[in-house]
Design brief:
mainly alpha; 4 helices; about 0% strand
Length: about 100
């Protein structure tokens, strides 16, 4: 398994309850947009975990000649996150009614 997938799987396993709660809030939000407050509340914590995992993943490659590789690795990691949670970028975003 490639490194970014290992980190993704480890992130889910180490934060199982958080992601279980987020999945429920995510599904509720996708079915009923009025449930955005819970989606945002749990989603902020999920985003912090995802960003922290991304930082750990890219930490060794951020400097020098591997900085471009680090960016590509982060992109691949986020593609994987967005495959499972396409609306994760909407966490905390205000929408006009």
């Amino acid at each position: 398994m490639v490194k970014y997938k290992q980190f993704y799987t480890r992130m889910l396993n180490q934060n199982e309850e958080l992601f279980r709660n987020f999945t429920k809030a995510y599904e509720d939000y996708t079915n009923d947009s009025s449930k955005k407050s819970e989606f945002d509340e749990i989603g902020r914590e999920v985003n912090m975990v995802v960003k922290r995992t991304e930082n750990k993943l890219c930490m060794q490659t951020d400097i020098g000649k591997f900085s471009n590789f680090s960016s590509n690795l982060a992109d691949k990691f986020w593609v994987l996150v967005r495959e499972n949670y396409p609306y994760i970028d909407k966490v905390g975003v205000e929408t006009k009614k």
